[in-house]
Amino acid sequence: MKKLVFLFIFIISILSFAVTQKTDFSAYNLSGEIISGVRVVKVESFRYSYSPNVIVVNSGERVRIKLSTRDTEHGFKIPEINFDLKVKKGRPREGEFTAPKPGIYEIRCSVFCGSGHKEMKGRLVVK
Ligand SMILES: [Cu+2]
């Protein structure tokens, strides 16, 4: 029985590794809409996540994030590309960046917003 449990855990580990290493992003639907050549994506932040939580863009395109917050002040930071946008309630803000090379980039909150702040994350998928 123990052997079976270990085998099961082993298979799950291999599968999750395969999923995180996946580099074919063709199945992801692109986020937002193109306005004057810029991909405009509306993002709402809240304790402790983002809506949408996964943002999908094409490599090399200009991306504009229109950020708002439902509750308190939050940030929308993509450390790997040095992008950071902070927002206060009732005062939406926007910022632009050029999508980097294909890959998955972490988005995290850059303003301390409570007990779940460290887990407030999203993903930028660049295909
Ligand atoms: Cu936060």
From TrEMBL:
Residue ranges of domain Cytochrome oxidase subunit II copper A binding in the record: 36-127
Signal sequence region: 1-18
InterPro entries reported for this sequence: CcO_II-like_C, Cupredoxin, EfeO_Cupredoxin, NosZ/Cyto_c_oxidase_sub2
SUPFAM superfamilies according to UniProt: Cupredoxins
Top-rank lineage group of the source organism: Bacteria
Main location (coarse class): other
Transmembrane segments: none
Localization terms from the record: Cell envelope
Pfam families tied to this protein: Cupredoxin_1
UniProt KW keywords: Copper, Metal-binding, Signal
Name of the featured protein: Cytochrome c oxidase subunit II
Record organism: Psychrilyobacter piezotolerans
